[in-house]
Amino acid sequence: MLLRHLSRRARVFPAPARAAACLRPGATSPRPLCSSSARHQSGMATFGRYTHAIVCRVPNAFKEAVGLSAPVSLDEARRQHEAYVRSLRQLDVDVIELPADEKHPDCVFVEDCAVVCNGIALLCRPGHASRRGEVDAIRAVIKKELELPIVEVLDPKATLDGGDVLFTGREFFVGLSGRTNEAGAAAVAAAFPEFSCTPIRVPAGTLHLKTLVTMAGPDILAVSELDDAQTVLKRIEREATFRYQTLTVREPAAANCVLVNGTLIHRARSECPESCDVFEDRLSTNLHPVCISELAKADAGLTCCSILVRKSKRPQL
Prior knowledge:
Layout (H helix, E strand, L loop, with lengths): L1 H6 L30 H8 L6 E5 L17 H17 L3 E5 L15 E4 L2 E4 L11 H12 L3 E3 L12 E3 L3 E6 L5 H10 L4 E6 L11 E5 L2 E5 L2 H13 L5 E5 L8 E3 L2 E5 L5 H10 L3 E5 L16 E3 L8
Parallel strand pairs: 1-2, 4-5, 7-8, 10-11, 13-14
Antiparallel strand pairs: 1-15, 3-4, 6-7, 9-10, 12-13
Protein name: N(G),N(G)-dimethylarginine dimethylaminohydrolase 1
Family: Belongs to the DDAH family.
InterPro entries: DDAH-like
């Protein structure tokens, strides 16, 4: 498989030996495959730690968002988005908030526009053509306000949504979906050559890889009981360079959560009651529930609404 060959050109840093303390007793401890470089260990030490976030307000045009499955209340969608943004600020994240872009109904879902890791920003090429103009505003913010180096996807045949890019702190998994193709996954491998980058086929009917699996903590994969989710989990486990722990949640929507500065942002009890019990029983990390039921009508999850960035402090001259 061509992409598999391309992705393996990236240097692979297997996992260091370390204890995982985020899952309560009852989970199997991860088994490291072998030692890794000091740089990669440093990367794991800062996994889930962020200084900045890019978000975008909900436009009136959100009523025409791609994939909208039911009538939406704009007022409620905005209240939920504002609460999400407040949550990030409460977790000591400097939030850069873009104004609503009425030309782009899906502009609130900024995640699909860029992948940021180790101080490098890869600008995506969204798989739905109507969304490609959203990248311009994100490019401007990353360049002018965050002052990060930018990598562009040069292959005109490539498609890449950030929602298909799962970074575990040790390696990348890139979903091959209706929005991301092999050329897009190869762009991730080229932009971040210090990490292994493995393509994972996403079942038909699922929007993104992170619809099914995200990180609930360092080395902990959150995944639902859905057959499609379990199939993807097996693919990840088969290809991974590290043995991860898994946290299985009951409601499919709960598998999409966000780890920010030691706190897990997850769907509220009113939306995913049984999964909230799992989070509370199995995780020792801080928990912060939020509601996004109106935004979710456009097939969205918590990760969709922000681009999270860890910006290193510049040395004092």
